[in-house]
Amino acid sequence: MLVDTHCHLDAAEFDADRDAVADAAAAAGVGRIVVPAVERANFGAVASVCREFAGCRPAYGIHPMYVDRAREPDLDVLREIIQREQPVAVGEIGLDRFIEASDDARQEFWFGAQLEIARDAGLPVLLHVRRAIDQVLKHLRRCPVPGGIAHAFNGSRQQADEFIKLGFKLGFGGAMSFPRANRIRELAATLPLDAIVLETDAPDIPPAWLAGGRNSPDQLPGIALAMAALRGLAVEDLAAATSANANAVLPRLARLH
C-alpha cells in the first residue's frame, strides 16, 4: 500500500471528477491520502472529502499564503475542529518567502500560533517551507511539536538533517522526476530511507510525464518508481518503507477509520 502524505483532494480542480480520481488512486494501490486544509473556509470541504472517501485522512491548518484572509477567531475554530474531527496533523502551516508581496510578520504570527496549537494537542504538523527553511527550523526549536513532515522538501542536506533531528520526515513528489532537479534527486537518493515519505501535492507539482497537466493521487506509483530507481531499490520495498514512515510520523494515519 502507498500513502500520499499531501494531496488537496478537496480542491476545485477535482470538483468535476473527484469520485473517479479517488477510485483511480485506490485502484493504483494508494491506500491512504492525507488531505490538508489551507484556510478556515475549506475546513468543511476537507472534512467532507475525508468522510466520503474511506482512505482519506484530514489535517487542518492555515497555509502561509492564506493568512491575509485569516482572523484571530479562526484559531479558536482550528482548536475546535481538531477536537471534533481528530485529524492526523495540523497543517498545512509554515512560511513562504517565495511570494514577493508576502507579509512576513503576519506569516510568522500565524505559524507560531498554530505550532502552539499543535504542541498543546500533541499533534504532528505538515509544513510548508518554500524558501524559508531556516526560519521554519527556528520556530520549531522555539516551540517543539511531535514531529511531522516537511512537505515538498528542497533544501540542503544539512537542513534535512536538522529536520530529522527534530523528528520530521521529508516529503518527496513529482519534482523529483525531472532529470535536471539535481539537488532534490540527490537527496532522494541519499537521505536515510527512514526519513522519507511520498506525496503528490495534487493538483499541483505534477511529475515530468504529465507535462504540466493536473496532478492526481494515482500518480504516486510513478513517483515511487522514480525514487526506487534513484535509490536502486525494488519499488515494492520503497513503497513499504515510505508507507511505514508515514504511519510512524502520523500515528493516527492507520488507526482512524
Give a structural overview:
This protein has 257 residues and is α/β, with parallel strands linked by helices. It has one domain: Metal-dependent hydrolases (TIM Barrel, Alpha-Beta Barrel), CATH 3.20.20. 43% of the residues lie in helices and 14% in strands. Strands 1-2-3-4-5-6-7-8 form an eight-stranded parallel β-sheet. The chain is globular, with a radius of gyration of 17 Å.
CATH class designation: Alpha Beta
Report the CATH topology name.
TIM Barrel
What overall geometry do the principal axes of the alpha carbons give? globular
The total strand number stands at: 8
Low-confidence stretches: none
What is the CATH superfamily classification?
Answer: Metal-dependent hydrolases
CATH architecture: Alpha-Beta Barrel
Mean of pLDDT: 96
Number of domains: 1
Please summarize what this structure is.
The chain is an alpha/beta fold.
What is the strand and helix layout of this fold?
Elements (H helix, E strand, L loop, with lengths): L1 E3 L13 H10 L2 E7 L6 H10 L3 E5 L12 H13 L3 E6 L9 H18 L3 E4 L4 H10 L5 E4 L5 H9 L2 E5 L9 H9 L5 E3 L21 H12 L3 H15 L2 H4 L2
Helix pairs in contact: 3-4, 7-8, 8-9
Characteristics:
single chain; 257 residues; alpha/beta; TIM Barrel; 8-stranded parallel β-sheet; 43% helix
